[in-house]
């Protein structure tokens, strides 16, 4: 019996749990030794144990059955299919998800830095690894990565990833030290995504920390919330929306979405309660500052209309999705599990269902299925 029964569900957020030497095995020889080691700290022992357990259950039906029973309980490297693509396909069978976006977890830390050759080589290796992990199952959609490291370099990374078979491109929501991602020199990047029908993604962690570090220097003991892929604490949660707000507002107000009406984008694992006031602020901004900023006045549509036409958001399972739909409409929000990260919880479907008590069935269908299909477009192979 699958976890999901009676409806089709598409999952907008899941992850690979990388192992040591995984990224290196996909890197070109001249880059391989220049990548940083995958640092897992105390979690390294968990990864080693999970590899041993996965190896043991391949020839042990009882252990395999136990792993399947713990499908939504075992997290991180212990999750079924956390790092093994054949096991991930089995996990999808048991979850009952018809499609699943797959992001990396830690790999970008191995090549982020000031050396452009290492950055480009690391991105190439990661995008090879992600497309290979997802290549054997059409339900798994690989999310490649690109950085804002110059229009030519970014475009080359995007084209290479698309040619490898990536089904989405993850960008930092922080613009870096150069020109804005909305600068005309980056227009070819947005154009190729629009032409290929591949959406862009922004994800938690892609904008750096919004909270000033000094706020954690308070002589109070605080541990990680769940110890998952993202080190989020209480005050971090309160400002987690600031980077995506800035990035997506720039795309709207600088006319990128107007210039590329076929472009779609997803804001993943950064919550959605902030979307309610943000959409209204966009329209206020357009009408107020359009008097002194001609580019805002020249937008032919309301700012919020571009959001409804081209952007999508994953609420946290703790957020009131029914209320979000009441406030914003049923065309913006997506189901996500965050599998196998612990942040998704042991029953994401149940939590979202509870938050939508009284929500019309058609709106629920949009949340679980239709909005994802609209965002992914031709990339999606229907279940």
Secondary structure blueprint with pairings:
Layout (H helix, E strand, L loop, with lengths): L8 E7 L13 H4 L11 H14 L3 H9 L15 H11 L1 E7 L12 H19 L5 E6 L5 H14 L3 E3 L16 H10 L3 E4 L30 H5 L3 H12 L2 H4 L5 E4 L6 H15 L4 H4 L5 H8 E3 L7 H8 L19 H8 L5 H16 L7
Parallel strand pairs: 1-2, 2-3, 3-4, 4-5, 5-6, 6-7
Helix pairs in contact: 2-3, 5-6, 6-7, 9-11
CATH class: Alpha Beta
Number of separate domains: 1
Helix share bin: 40-55%
Q: What share of residues are in beta strands?
A: 5-15%
What is the overall pLDDT average?
A: 92
Biggest β-sheet description: 7 strands, parallel
Write the CATH architecture name: Alpha-Beta Barrel
Tell me the distance between the termini: 17 Å
CATH topology: TIM Barrel
Number of helices: 16
Order of helices and strands: EHHHHEHEHEHEHHHEHHHEHHH
Radius of gyration: 21 Å
Q: Strand arrangement, largest sheet? A: 1-2-3-4-5-6-7
How many DSSP E strands?
7
Low-confidence stretches: none
Instruction: Give the name of the CATH superfamily.
Output: Metal-dependent hydrolases
Task: Give a description of the structure.
With about 375 residues, the protein is an alpha/beta fold. The protein contains 16 helices and 7 strands. It has a 7-stranded parallel β-sheet, with helices on both faces. Strand 3, helix 6 and strand 4 (about 170) form a beta-alpha-beta unit. The radius of gyration is 21 Å and the shape is globular.
Summarize the structure.
This protein is α/β, with parallel strands linked by helices. The protein is built from 16 helices and seven strands. It has helices at 29-32, 44-57, 61-69, 85-95, 116-134, 151-164, 187-196, 234-238, 242-253, 256-259, 275-289, 294-297, 303-310, 321-328, 348-355, 361-376, and strands at 9-15, 97-103, 140-145, 168-170, 200-203, 265-268, 311-313.
